[in-house]
Amino acid sequence: MLTRWYAPARPPATTRASYLVDTLALFLVPGFGEAISAYVVIPAAIAEVWMVGYLLVIGVRITKPAVRPALECGAPGQPACALP
Q1: Using an 8 Å Cβ cutoff, are 37 and 22 in contact?
Q2: Is the distance from CB of 33 to CB of 19 less than 8 angstroms?
């Protein structure tokens, strides 16, 4: 689950929007697209670096498995479970 400070950036959405605007500008208005291309991609670059930093610092949270009792029926070296 993403933290509250991370959510406003929304790196995947920011990246997609930036690249979409860049591609459409280059395709529909080539002169204008070339002029704004470097500036439109800046939010995508920031979002990608932010996401990599988040994953390196926070990472994926894995819950620890519950401790199993030492004597469990059917476990290796233990007798089989009795049927009721």
Answers
A1: yes
A2: no
* Residue 70 binned pLDDT confidence (cut-offs 50, 70, 90): low
DSSP state of 23: H
Paired tokens of 39: 């500036």
CA distance 21 to 19: 6
Residue 58, SS3? Answer: coil
Letter string b/e over residues 42-62, b meaning 16 or more CB atoms within 10 A of that residue's CB: ebbeebeeebeebeeeeeeee
pTM for the structure as a whole: 0.55
Distance of alpha carbon 80 from alpha carbon 68, whole angstroms: 17
- Token couple for 40: 């439109």
CA separation, residue 15 to residues 33, 37, 48, 63, 79 (Å)? 17, 14, 7, 30, 57
